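TICKET #2291
ISSUE: user wants both folds in one file
ATTACHMENT 1:
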Amino acid sequence: MIRSAFFPGRRVPARPGHPFRRTLPERALRPVPVIVPVHEPEVRAAMARALTTSTMTQGAALRSPPVNPARITARDVRDFLLAYCACFVALMAFLS
């Protein structure tokens, strides 16, 4: 038995390993459960396409369709310019 550094009056059984880990309670040493990721519908569809296509065309199956320039809206342009200017200002502030 050794005296715990975190709980002065408490004695803990001697365990092998790092001195800090020996002072931790058992509940802190339990393994963390593995969380399965939840994919977006677009990702699930791309993964399904990749599984059904051959290995030669797998790269094409994972790509999204090309952007149609006629579908770019003023909001898209405004969002791009806002992000571009924000990055430019942040870079200039960092460099000055």
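ATTACHMENT 2:
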Amino acid sequence: MSDNLSFSELSDTAKAKALNDFVPFYFSLLNNEELDVMASFDFNHVIADINRTIMDVSNQVPEEICAFSAKFNRDDYHKLLSQLPQTFFDNGNPTTDWREWYVEETNKLDPFATL
């Protein structure tokens, strides 16, 4: 199994897996108002569109919100994932757990952060 692939290097199937695994993580960050690190990589300015979609369907259960957002904002998520310094195995699994990755990236921005 290959590892250390960027999101852009993944097959379409692996990209779909990576996306579907990432969206619930992103949703949890949004709910906890912890999107600072994500925003630092939002070079394509897609976070506002993703968040708007999530807020528009916020009356649904989290699983439905994530599924809808993953489908509706697919291209936005692809743009964001392409910018993140996260690597993946060729099956779409991240090489570093998303929560661990987020703590590491937060520490790079602010070594005194307490996530």
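RESOLUTION: both attachments delivered.
EXTRA DETAIL ON ATTACHMENT 2: Residues 24 and 68 are 11 Å apart (CA to CA).
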